[in-house]
Amino acid sequence: CLSNQNKLGEIFIILNRKILAAILGSLLAAFIISIPYRFEGDLFFNMFYLNLMFTITYGVIVSIIGDWVSRQISEKLYIREIISFLFHFCGGLPLNGVGLIPAILFFIVDRLLKKAKIGCLPVMIALLMVVLMFIILLNSWTE
């Protein structure tokens, strides 16, 4: 029973990290994609929410599968990271260039967050900020 609790705790930590990585990666991707357009109009926010929708669903699933497959293939960390990166990269390919930037950033942010055990609080704060920003933007667009 204790082993099952440890596995559930590990899954919980991984999901928290992936969700936070999706939010932060989408934010960075929207920023990078908006730079050439000088943040015209609502491009940044549209890109952020569009990226977030794909990343928090499709991207998190691809990332979890990529990490799992890489652990099954090799015990060497270097090889596992390459395999996982390839999964992230290939996951972004169907969305052309616009999908590659968020996919690569998601991988990088996920790896940076891997060093910390992400609990509920940072994820809840990030999700709350995303929802509040959406409500504020929605109200500003309807005025």
Uncertain runs are none
**For the residues shown, what is the average pLDDT?**
86
Annotation field: number of helices? 5
Percentage of residues in helical conformation: over 70%
Q: Find the count of extended strands (DSSP E, 2+ residues).
A: 0
Which term fits the overall shape? globular
Strand content: under 5%
Say what oligomer this is: single chain
From the helix content, strand content and strand pairing, which structural class follows? mainly alpha
Rg value? 16 Å
The run of helices and strands is HHHHH
Report, as a whole number of angstroms, the end-to-end distance. Answer: 55 Å
The biggest sheet, with number of strands, parallel, antiparallel or mixed sense and barrel status, is: none
State the gist of this model:
This protein has 143 residues and is mainly alpha-helical. It is 85% helix and 0% strand. The longest helix is centred in the first third of the chain and has 33 residues, at 2-34.
Description of the structure:
There is one protein chain. The protein is an all-alpha fold. It contains 5 helices and no strands. It has helices spanning 2-34, 43-73, 77-92, 96-113, 120-142. Helix 1 (2-34) crosses helix 4, helix 2 packs across helix 4 and helix 3 runs antiparallel to helix 4 (96-113). The chain is globular and about 50 Å long. The protein starts with a helix and ends with a helix.
Keywords:
143 residues, mainly alpha
